[in-house]
Design goal:
Length: 628
């Protein structure tokens, strides 16, 4: 395999790795990346620093001062009614009560609070109750709202209170670190959908209609920058009390400043030690939940939330694929310290761009991109810098094995004519490709010595089959091989011998895989493609030459492996090969088709037939797709 092909293979594998990492994480796997992303998000938030929030929200905190000066917690309903009544008199835009009013208390207190709630624009908090510790999406759900967190039920305020106010669900979504990274805007049970508390408050404060589209939320004519699951990503302006906060005790003391309330969004919530919900944030080890909710409300009303929508997800996917490929390409371009320096410069530039985007309102995922880039780059750099390592020994053994795999007829011909194929020759020949599926993933998780033994056995099987059928192994392509029938000279039975070799390989490799331990054999599959036509045979290389063939016939034979895998087969044969072999069927095999196939990289149509043993239905497609 030439260096260019090696680099191409490395780039393809790197791209597949990056795509696999992104897809696995996007489908809910690799949860450790969420913890890493939460840590990196905290770091980027601290790099951005404290920001002055839009001065739209005032938090009226039921804090330790209220309790110490003769109050109690939970605050009596009559005292809460006094707090609400005083706030309403100062004419706020909306009063949002981030307290769960779900239990009855003293009848007079409840009646007083209910009457007070009727005096102004109110939003009350409800809670979503989930059947487990995590918010789940029901399997098999359909439609754009299927991604919403599915609750078992909603814990709603008492009807006496809810009749005088709007209600929103107050739950937040915490990351692996426990820090709230987003607030779901919509929740559902099996029969209804509820708005979140922040969205309900923002809708009332802005007095604009809310539109729920399949892929977005609209407040009036402004799109809400939600994630793909209708969750609002949040970033914190600073430590606790960065959003304007006043103590509820100022109401009891008669010292509440009217300017802190008038024409503003007022959120009443608990921050008393041991009485409210607290969360860790980048700036605080404990931030009251009411300030987390107020941060979300501010984002919604001001429109200054961080963007993490489907377009950002697409950028994340491209970064997970292209950045590792670029780094590997740089290391391959310069196998020296210069290549390492260039790759390091690109990584620094990416980290700077990622941080810059975050500080300017675009949340690009860092953890997934790092997981996609670091392993392939580390492996490739190790191969480049430590050529004597175990991986290089494996590749050297593979190269030595390749040097020995020449058909005896070609060896004899070269001995008689050292200039054989020194000039390219155009002739008809049959070409067979075989490739193992799942070998790359297996080699990453298996000891090199064991992998080498597996590869040796595979090579030996191909070698014996090719020699028995009079074919020439022109090269091993990764964990596959290319066989040529037509050297040292074209023969009338080239197509027939290639057909026999293809069938023998099918049976031999199938038996070999079945003989392997299940932990290995269950992860391997194979595919074979064979075609007949005109090729250009030549010798390539300088100090070490090898026989090879090029042309459309070679390309079609290679692509037939893909056609086989896509159509539930392991062996795909062109009609050209079958005609040249004068094949009329065999009693021990089943030939199905024909299929008119459009092969990749070729404008014409190829007529393809699929072969399998009569007593063994071929299930390669599902298995090959699973392994690849």
């Amino acid at each position: 395999m030439t260096r260019r092909v090696q680099i191409l293979v490395a780039l393809i594998l790197t791209a597949l790795w990056g795509a696999g990492i992104y897809a696995a994480h996007a489908h809910g796997h690799l949860r450790f990346l969420d913890r890493l992303e939460a840590t990196l998000t905290d770091w980027r938030t601290q790099v951005r620093g404290v920001q002055r929030p839009p001065d739209l929200v005032t938090i009226v905190a039921i804090d330790d001062t209220v309790v110490k000066r003769g109050g109690s917690y939970p605050l009596p309903r009559a005292d809460l009614a006094r707090v609400v009544d005083t706030i309403v008199q100062f004419k706020p835009k909306v009063v949002a009560i981030d307290l769960l009013l779900v239990d009855r208390s003293a009848a007079i207190g409840d009646a007083t609070l209910a009457n007070t709630l009727a005096t102004g624009p109110m939003v009350l908090a409800a809670a979503a109750i989930f059947p487990s510790a995590s918010e789940t999406v029901e399997a098999g759900s359909q439609g754009p709202l299927a991604v919403l967190p599915q609750a078992e039920r909603f814990l709603l305020p008492l009807p006496a209170f809810a009749d005088h106010a709007e209600v929103g669900v107050v739950n937040v979504a915490t990351g692996q670190s426990g820090s709230p990274l987003s607030v779901p805007m919509l929740f559902r049970t099996h029969d209804k959908v509820e708005l979140s508390f922040p969205l309900r408050v923002a809708t009332r404060a802005l007095d604009k209609p809310l539109t729920i589209a399949p892929d977005r939320l609209m407040l009036g004519d402004r799109a809400v920058p939600t994630d793909t699951d209708f969750a609002l990503p949040i970033t914190y302006y600073g430590p606790r009390r960065t959003i304007r906060t006043v103590s509820a005790q100022s109401i009891f003391d008669g010292t509440l400043n009217r300017a802190a309330i008038e024409n503003r969004i007022v959120v009443i919530g608990a921050s008393v030690a041991g009485g409210g919900d607290f969360y860790p944030t980048p700036f605080d080890s404990l931030m009251p939940g009411v300030e987390v909710v107020s941060t979300a409300i501010t984002h919604l009303v001001a429109g200054d939330g961080i963007v993490r929508d489907y377009r950002v997800r697409i950028a994340d996917a491209l970064a997970a694929i292209l950045l590792p490929m670029l780094l590997v390409g740089l290391l391959a371009w310069r196998r020296s310290a210069l290549g390492i320096m260039a790759a390091a410069a690109v990584m620094i530039a990416w980290a700077g761009l990622n941080t810059f985007a975050f500080t300017h309102g675009v949340w690009l995922n860092a953890a997934t991109t790092l997981a996609a880039a670091v392993p392939p780059v580390a492996i490739f750099a190790g191969v480049q810098l430590w050529a004597g390592g175990r991986r290089t020994q494996y590749l050297a053994a593979k190269s030595r094995s390749l040097a020995r795999l020449q058909a005896p007829a070609v060896q004899e011909w070269l001995a008689r004519d050292p200039d054989f194929l020194s000039k390219p020759v155009r002739q008809n020949a049959a070409v067979v490709f075989i490739d193992l599926s799942g070998f790359t993933g297996l080699s990453e998780q298996t000891e090199p010595d064991a992998i080498q033994e597996i590869l040796k056995a595979f090579h030996a099987l191909i070698d014996k089959t090719a020699v028995d059928c009079g074919g020439t192994i022109t090269g091993f392509l990764g964990d596959g091989a290319m066989l040529l029938f037509g050297l040292p000279g074209a023969m009338p039975d080239d197509a027939a011998r290639a057909l026999k070799c293809s069938i023998d390989l099918h049976r031999g490799v199938e038996r070999w895989i079945a003989s392997l331990p299940s932990a290995i054999g269950d992860r391997l599959g194979f595919k074979i493609g064979a075609h007949f036509g005109e090729i250009v045979a030549s010798r390539l290389g300088e100090s070490h030459q090898h026989i090879t063939a090029t042309g459309d016939t070679v390309n079609v034979a290679s692509r037939l492996m893909e056609v086989a895998a896509q159509n539930g087969a392991r062996l795909a044969l062109s009609d050209t090969l079958l005609d040249a072999a004068d094949f009329h069927g065999a009693p021990d095999g089943v030939l199905s088709g024909p299929l008119l196939a459009q092969v990749r990289g070729r404008s014409g149509i190829v007529t393809v037939w699929f072969w399998r043993d009569q007593d063994r239905p071929d299930q390669a497609a599902a298995r090959a797709e699973m392994i690849d």
